[in-house]
TrEMBL record:
The keyword DNA-binding applies. GO terms for molecular function: DNA binding; DNA-binding transcription factor activity. Coiled coil: none annotated. PANTHER family: HELIX-TURN-HELIX TRANSCRIPTIONAL REGULATOR, ICLR FAMILY, HTH-TYPE TRANSCRIPTIONAL REPRESSOR ALLR. Residues 12-74 form the HTH iclR-type domain. One of its GO terms (biological process) is negative regulation of DNA-templated transcription. Residues 75-258 form the IclR-ED domain. Keywords: DNA-binding, Transcription, Transcription regulation. This is IclR family transcriptional regulator. InterPro entries: GAF-like_dom_sf, HTH_MetabolicPath_Reg, Tscrpt_reg_IclR_C, Tscrpt_reg_IclR_N, WH-like_DNA-bd_sf, WH_DNA-bd_sf. Transmembrane segments: none annotated.
Length: 261
């Protein structure tokens, strides 16, 4: 017997099965039924229900009881955000953001969703432009920012409801942000219709931002790119900025192996 094989720890079937379930959920466009997971992975339903129960308790999975569906929970999403914070996404995004700022002449940023906030992982300041409150590592409420709104609009509806499950989740949001699930749904509808998110004065009076989500190969929004500019910019120049941000988002998607959906 090979010595290295003899010393290798025996695999844990439950751990392997749980990781397979998480990986499967990560490839889905939205929450799915436990029976569908069992069928796709060729696992006993009893095993799938048991593992989903454990993962739901730990926050890796969210159970939408009324719909009898399961989706990724906030802890699983935080793992994705952790990956982004540990540099790979930032390193890939920095040159893309630098090119965007050079073309647009305005400051830009790359942010990821972390719970109900966004965390800025790359910040590129344009010369002689207004001072911004954003910087690498700064957290701001997702509902108030263009980057947060872009990511939330790109999430499957059920997953977004898991992040903001009811009216209580809107109690402390900043002025100018959606104040209820209905207002958030309308904002999402408008953002999807336009293809970009925007905010005007919600973060800093006199400054506006536009943002576009960056998706991975499954279509999942892993980040968003934005530029910030004075609110008095005319509609035509704003439209040009949106085009530049969308171009940058498409380029970053290509670098991370994603595809525009």
């Amino acid at each position: 017997m090979d010595g290295s094989s003899a010393s290798r720890p025996a695999p844990s079937p439950a751990l392997d099965q749980g990781l397979r379930i998480l990986a499967h959920l990560a490839t889905q466009r939205g929450p799915v039924a436990a029976s569908a997971i069992a069928g796709a992975l060729d696992l006993p339903r009893s095993t799938v229900y048991r593992l989903l129960g454990v993962m739901a308790e730990r926050g890796f999975v969210v159970h939408l009881a009324e719909q009898r569906l399961y989706g990724l929970g906030l802890v699983a999403y935080e793992l994705s955000s952790g990956f982004a914070r540990q540099q790979p996404l930032a390193r890939l995004g920095a040159p893309v953001l630098g090119g965007l700022v050079d073309r647009a002449g305005e400051s830009g940023h790359l942010a990821v969703l972390h719970g109900t906030d966004v965390v800025y992982i790359v910040e590129e300041r344009a010369p002689r432009r207004p001072t911004l409150v954003t910087d690498v590592g700064v957290r701001l409420p997702a509902l108030a920012t263009a980057t947060g709104r872009a990511i939330l609009a790109a999430l499957p509806d059920a997953q977004r409801r898991a992040v903001f499950p009811g009216r209580a989740a809107f109690e402390a949001v900043p002025e100018g942000s959606p104040r209820s699930p209905a207002e958030l749904r309308e904002l999402v509808r408008l953002t999807r219709e336009r293809g970009f998110a925007e905010e005007d004065g919600s973060v800093t009076p006199g400054l506006a931002s536009v943002a576009v989500a960056v998706r991975d190969h499954t279509g999942w929004p892993v980040a968003a790119i934005a530029v910030t500019f004075p609110s008095e910019r005319d509609p035509a120049s704003r439209e040009a900025l949106v085009g530049e941000v969308a171009r940058a988002a498409t380029e970053l998607e290509r670098r991370v192996g994603g595809a525009r959906r």
